[in-house]
Amino acid sequence: MGSIVVGIDFSRVTDLLLQVASEQAKAFSDEVYLIHVAEPDPEFVGLDAGPPVVRDQLAADLHKGHAKLQQLSVELKKQGCNSTALLLQGAVAELLAEQGTRLDARLLIVGSHRHGHLRDALIGSTVRNLMRLTAIPVLVVPARN
Hints:
The chain is an alpha/beta fold. The protein has a single domain (3-142), classed as HUPs (Rossmann fold), CATH 3.40.50.620. 47% of the residues lie in helices and 23% in strands. Strands 3-2-1-4-5 form a 5-stranded parallel β-sheet, sandwiched between helices. Helix 3 (92-102) packs parallel to helix 5 (126-133). The longest helix has 27 residues, at 52-78. It is globular and about 50 Å long.
């Protein structure tokens, strides 16, 4: 039994990611790790987190994201897949690559949003960065129009 790491961003490609992960997990008896990477804590990157109301909103957003991720994991379990949900904070590609290695993943599954070459050139592509950072095979699931 191996593992599959799935990068979840709660976008329109999420349902497809779950479908592909379920199919792969069942075919190879893998455990699925659903990972959502939230923005890093402002204080961690040297910024002021702001007044308490801002910190409270950040905490509420993290809690909401964690609950959504747990629900997705429950859905996979109902389909007969072993699934674990992990919420992390930091740089997306770096953390997915690190977790893939830590969890001895045989496959990383991520979505593609088809933003275009100009946007990717200006701010970078998570998929491109992930493939640069890991030797683990990366399956890219495109969003449907």
